[in-house]
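User: For a benchmark we're assembling, each entry needs the component sequences followed by a predicted structure for the full assembly. Here are entry 17's components. Please fill in the structure.
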Amino acid sequence: MTDVQVWVWRGDASGGDFMPYKVAADEGMVVLDVVHRIQAENAPDLAVRWNCKAGKCGSCSAEINGHPKLMCMTRMNEFPAGEHITISPVKTFPVVKDLVTDVSFNYEKAKTIPPFKPKPKDSDGKRRMYQEDIDRVQEFHKCIECFLCQDVCHVIRDHDENKQSFSGPRFFVRLAALEMHPLDTNERIDLIRAKHGLGFCNITKCCTEVCPEDIHITDNAIIPLKERVVSAHYDPIAWALRRMRGKKDEFVPPELKPPSA
Amino acid sequence: MSEIERHEYDVVVIGAGGAGLRAAIEAHALGAKTAIVCKSLLGKAHTVMAEGGIAAALGNVWPEDNWQVHFRDTMRGGKLLNNWRMAQLHAQEAPDRVLELEEWGALFDRTKDGLILQRDFGGHRYARLAHVGDRTGLEMIRTLQNTAVAKDIDVFMECTLRHLLTDGERVSGAIGYWRQSGKLITFSAKAVVLATGGVGKAWRVTSNSWEYTGDGIAMAIEAGADLIDMEMTQFHPTGMVWPPSVRGLLVTEGVRGDGGTLRNKSGERFMFRYIPEFFRADTADTEKEADAWYEDKRNNRRTPDLLPRDEVARAINSEVKAGRGTEHGGVFLDIATRRPAEYIRRRLPSMYHQFKELADVDITKQQMEIGPTLHYIMGGIRVDPDTEATTVPGLYAAGEVAAGMHGANRLGGNSLSDLLVFGRRAGEAAAAYSKRAGAPKIDEAQLAAFGQGLEAPFQKGGDENPYAIHSELQDTMQELVGIIRRRDELEEALVRLERLRARAARARVTGSRVYNPGWHLALDLDNLIGVSEAVTRSALVREESRGGHTREDFPKTDPEWGTKNVVIRKRDGHLVLATEPIAKVPAELRALLGDDKPTGEAATGTKTPVAAGDD
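Assistant: Structure for entry 17:
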């Protein structure tokens, strides 16, 4: 049996470095298997998150040779023999230890999203929705919250200071799912612009590229949301109606730094 | 013991899968100050892995479906060992719980009329499972998670609770540690709801993640609660078998529900040889009728590929033992010959993806290689059927950690509905209890002793690798307490478990307290080994074969044993086992079940069964 060698980032908030580990290779092995073998044989305290090991829970996000990926869905045979393989924590969130980062940013943002508010039921007490009307929203519901889209998003990847005013692709998908839900009646459009910072997405599609669920984040969620914001805010009739109803923007977002990329 | 972070709640829910989240939502809605405490990040619990659907007699596809039929299917699937009242409540309330998810934003696949679509699954007479492709669990957990967050319920993520605290007879809280910082944390609580799931990680081939270490079962028995049916473990018939990296990974029963058939290495549809008498009247006994069933369900009986999981898992095991399995020790599951590629990709997207990415198999063209995988435990904490109260005042249990609902074998799809129905009931009862109970007293000596125990692995300077001990435990349970059991092997397992326990006490922990999986595993080993012992001892006591418990030395299903639960409790530090009568089904419900009883002989792989109709 052959061995595989990988370089795993070990360290904590104060710093760290890549450490080489060599373990036996198995047929069909994924990167997460290698990490588990390192834990069992070499480094019992190596910190890593994982759960389902089948690409369904979104726990084991990391950067493999710098690419944001799920460790459980990255086969070792994708790498040519002898390739230098690095495994490091996702960059956008602060390191806790080794491959584990503090992703509480996402859970805090989730709290700021106005919840689903359904319209009344049909007169017979049932709810009817047609498959073709929910296909798009079901695409958004595939999100496994791996936060790889957040990791790769230029607005926050290199700009911690933008996190305050920008929620990131994961939450644009969530907002789009709510906004396009056939039963939902809640108001979010003002908030999407003012609080979640949709305008700062410059549609580079990096998020779409890394999504392990193949959700068309930019085309199907972000761009339609941008269109809704535009028609709500710059359509004179919608603007007048909003004024008449007394709705105002809650606050003006602070200036965001432009993405470096 | 180092300093400890303290919190006070009316209700603490341990576990954030379907049952825990639903319990917390209910307790919170009833005004109880509620906390959810979970080992992983919110939304990652095993519920997220559930694929095929939620069983509920909505009657959207088959108007003749109703709770009575669902009750019958559940009881018969459980080989009549179920707590009848739980099976009744479950069948009656599941539709409301599913519709409630829709009120909270869930989007199930639709019928042509715009209602919730339902699919076929093993052991259910009618297409009954509300689903979203093959990612129903994700839809369910995300809907519950978003609801809990919107209601601003306090969540303690990546926080492992390891011991329950007691005040005399009653529960008073729990103690554990933050996984990120390694610091100790304790909750004072008037009521505690255990929703911690099962113990799959005690087996080598399992569909379960690292979290399933039997925590709730171990904590409950330590606090004085009764366990029942611990010998009843479910081997899901279809786990992946190749490559080794994915061995055990779940392949949804929806594959068979949507047209997949099982074949041995010669291409034979072997399930026709394994139709038990108890299900014969409902099952097609020729390939012709089974094939016709897919197109005309009204005038044909269902394919034996969709017999309950215990039957199918044993049949696969027998085929492999008889040398009719695949190269890697499984059998074939084929949907490509019956269904077009587009249908497969639409109905089973994550199966398509999983096989393509991890096994280089295109299920729209090729057969899958599958075999049994430890998936679920029907046994667990004994609860009152209406309130999910355990035998310890203030302690409740719901979901996989609780027992009774599924009897000797759980039907697919009945777990997600179980989580919702009994999660809600547990949350309601815990909130009500917290209103009438006074504030509990924390026993500081008990707290300190538990706290020191959690920190001890750092101080002991042990010489055993916790990962190696875990690995040997998995081999022990897989080889000796697997799908087919016998006395000498079970006794050998007990000897090995004792040795593993002694070694676990010397587990070596290195590194800091911060996010240290080696330390976490060292602590989990106690639970894993303790619960494994309970399973093994129960399996020794039940000298018959029924549902998820098959004894090679007692292959017959014995009607006498069908009236008893094996009960386990801890007294003076030792497990005490007893058999106690199960509650009798009232006459009006008994009429729904039919007069026959499961009496046949289980396939143990020691002899080849003959084709149906030949005997």
